[in-house]
Amino acid sequence: MMNELLSIAIPTHNRSKYLAALLESINIQYTAEFCSLIHIYIFDHCCPK
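Predicted structure:
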């Protein structure tokens, strides 16, 4: 079993309509084997107070 090779953190606030396009863009840039080594973390409601 291979370890995580790349972590991507995505802070967002009221941008759900752009999230699918962003994830698809990430997905098409890498092979399926490499994609299994990428962990994507999405943080919703990341806004300054």
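Summary: The helical segments are 16-29, 32-35.
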